[in-house]
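Long-time lurker, first post. I've been practising inverse folding by hand and with some scripts of my own, and I keep getting stuck on stretches where the structure tokens seem ambiguous. Below is the full token string for one chain I'm working on. Before anyone asks, I'm not after the true native sequence, just a reasonable design that respects the backbone. If someone could post their per-position residues I'd love to compare against what I wrote down in my notebook.
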């Protein structure tokens, strides 16, 4: 996989997360494919507690992530980028069909990479826990120690999603790929729900912003270290992300918050700081009054930006876009 497609910071975080899970078996077991979750007695049924696979297969766009690489639009983008086949090229499949990159030793015969972003993309390789995770006498900690990824941990959940929803090569954008904005609250709300949500929209959004800043900072710091040119859009996106995270810190009384420096360019130190804030802000469910504080602060910021923003300045324009998108996400409820 080309180094430009590797989301460096998330990859490091992911390795750390795997280490902390105390996985049993060879490298945490193998990936066995969504077909093993699809029977009516498991997650392919019709009942409220057994239709997770059915929801994913019928309604979730993640199940069609790989097939989207076979469309006419993908073909046009591939031609522009001189990619022979987007359905097999790692610049596309690293997010649209991540199982393709697995070594043979981590796959079973029932795994189908064309399933796109499937159950194990989020929940982890299931060979070691698929038979035991529904046992009523198993505790949550036992399931996790068997290798099931703890997606009730908001820090780990954010890391699982942000890698493919924030950083993207600018030549892919130029070829027609949509720009990416990691709005964890909005993305979660738009998902056909197959889980019980325990986190509020404001906290989902704010933790996601800290994770997005970490990814952007690490990506640009890495480019700078290699003396690669930074696109003005990338720089403005990073600047507006840093500014937005600073607004969150000024609004909420986080316990022992790390400060965010204000460098002219992204640094690995800022990457470390934003990772600490991602972890800190996801430790426990926020008090309800924090939700209201954040919403009111963003509404005030929106009013001020509309008065002062110059739309010809890219960074200012992005600030307003991000605040407006945040307010839309915070207003969503189910």
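-- Answer (accepted) --
I ran through it position by position. Result:
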């Amino acid at each position: 996989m080309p180094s430009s497609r590797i989301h460096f910071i998330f990859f490091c975080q992911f390795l750390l997360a795997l280490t902390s899970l105390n996985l049993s078996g060879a490298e945490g077991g193998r990936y066995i494919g969504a077909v093993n979750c699809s029977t009516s007695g498991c997650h392919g049924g019709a009942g409220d507690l057994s239709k997770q696979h059915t929801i994913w297969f019928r309604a979730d766009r993640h199940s069609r992530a790989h097939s989207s690489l076979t469309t006419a639009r993908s073909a046009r983008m591939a031609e522009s980028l001189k990619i022979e086949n987007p359905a097999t090229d790692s610049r596309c499949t690293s997010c649209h069909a991540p199982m393709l990159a697995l070594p043979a030793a981590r796959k079973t015969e029932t795994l189908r990479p064309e399933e796109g972003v499937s159950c194990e993309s989020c929940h982890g390789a299931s060979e070691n826990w698929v038979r035991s995770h529904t046992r009523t006498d198993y505790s949550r900690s036992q399931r996790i120690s068997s290798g099931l990824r703890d997606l009730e941990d908001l820090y780990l959940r954010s890391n699982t999603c942000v890698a493919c929803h924030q950083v993207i090569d600018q030549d892919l954008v130029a070829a027609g790929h949509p720009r990416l904005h990691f709005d964890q609250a909005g993305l979660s709300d738009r998902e056909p729900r197959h889980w019980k949500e325990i986190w509020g929209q404001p906290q989902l959004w704010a933790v996601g912003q800290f994770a997005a800043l970490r990814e952007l900072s690490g990506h640009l710091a890495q480019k700078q270290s290699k003396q690669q040119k930074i696109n003005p859009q990338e720089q403005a996106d990073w600047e507006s992300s840093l500014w937005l995270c600073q607004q969150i810190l000024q609004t909420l009384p986080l316990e022992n918050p790390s400060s965010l420096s204000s460098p002219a360019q992204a640094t690995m130190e800022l990457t470390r700081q934003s990772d600490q804030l991602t972890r800190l802000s996801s430790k426990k469910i926020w008090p309800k009054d924090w939700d209201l504080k954040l919403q009111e602060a963003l509404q005030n910021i929106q009013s001020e930006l509309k008065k002062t923003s110059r739309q010809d300045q890219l960074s200012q324009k992005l600030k307003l876009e991000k605040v407006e998108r945040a307010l839309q996400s915070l207003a969503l409820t189910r």
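A couple of notes from the structure itself: The chain has two domains: 7-21+151-334, 24-149. Residues 72 and 78 are 10 Å apart (CA to CA). Happy to go over any region you disagree with.
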